[in-house]
Amino acid sequence: MIQSSKQVRSLPPYLFSIFHKKKVALTAQGVDVIDLGIGAPDLPTPPFIIDRLAEEIRKPKNHKYSPYGGCREFREAVADFYRSHYDVELDPETEVLTLIGSKEGIAHLISAVLDPGDGVLAPDPGYPVYQSAIHLAHGSTIRFPLDEENSYAPLFNQISPRDISRSKMMLLNYPNNPTGGTVELDTFEEAVRFAKEHKLSLIHDAAYDLVTFGDYKAPSLLQVPGAKEAAVEFGSLSKTFNMSGWRLGYVVGNKELIRSLSVYKSNMDTSQFLPIQLAGVTALRSDFSSVRANNRTYEQRLDLMMNAFSGMNIQAEKPKGTFFLWARVPDGYTSQGFSEKMLDEAGIILTPGTAFGQKGEGYFRMSLSVPIERLHEASIRMKKAMKGG
Ligand SMILES: *Cc1c(COP(=O)(O)O)cnc(C)c1O
User: Fold this and answer.
1) Where is the Aminotransferase class I/classII large domain (predicted)?
2) Probe ligand 1: pick from 104, 127, 237, max atoms within 8 Å of CB?
3) 333-352 pLDDT per residue, tens
4) Is the CB of 207 under 6 A from ligand 1?
5) pTM of the entire predicted model
6) Residue with the larger pLDDT of the pair 10 and 105
């Protein structure tokens, strides 16, 4: 009898696959399900990026293994992006590493750095992958709250000395999934101070770094002077350039952390397909007009939904980043109860806040990664279901 390892058997079920099963079942029954649980862009990859892939894939020299840490061109493009966007200098050789998507990198870094029993401070609510990766690395997740009253920034001085002393790492994520919370550089300054004082490695997941609205520009953690002594930042082309299926990301910052991850990965994979990395170079060296156009699309959808919510008495603050809307469930409902009601009575998939941790109780997350007509339809159905009581 073949059995999975204890660690795999005791993993919490991956939430999004549960919703996927429900969606398949309902669709088979003829229900026109509107899936607002999606965590990936619905818009296509810009054609200029596809053109570069098409060009590079025809060259036989690109059919071989990539160097383990990724090709030099991609690492230089990342370093140049950090210089032009954030005024941060990086050594492409030692301070940049290509990843097969940032999820892979985050999970493997945790494994590369943790010893059994080590704690990791992780946000609640937060991206579920953090907890699973810590579990697979035999570590323990120590959650710190992100509260609406504090605009979803961490309250560093409320983390207990015991929790701090048990921890080896701290994870942050801004613009934040699921809350849409954003921060200014002072929060990162405090984070770096906190990490250095307590000898923690600081890991920043910046998957939505360029998915922002209006005048807001998300800072990089590496803009904090001396951040590289304690921190790395993960970036991804998935959300910014609608490349989620391509699997391309990077990590930048602290040399020692990057070296650990690089050693670990060189025993697991051989980096990403060269034509994909080279297409990524074209993306990172572009004028970013495709990113601005995407953001305008998300913001129109966001405005439509914010309007609809105010007519339904659903409270939500307009986020400055990400393509998620984090909203309070109406009075009298739990997160799970409200999400179930919307699925059963309106055919809409919303993610209950509790999918991201206990602190998500009382909230739901709605993805704006569907065409505006579908969002409009969803708002009509929601309104009707709520009138029905
Ligand atoms: C989508 C997402 C990622 C994963 O991105 P990939 O680069 O596609 O692996 C990482 N972190 C958060 C918070 C995300 O929402």
Assistant:
1) 32-378
2) 127
3) 999 999 999 998 999 999 99
4) yes
5) 0.96
6) 105
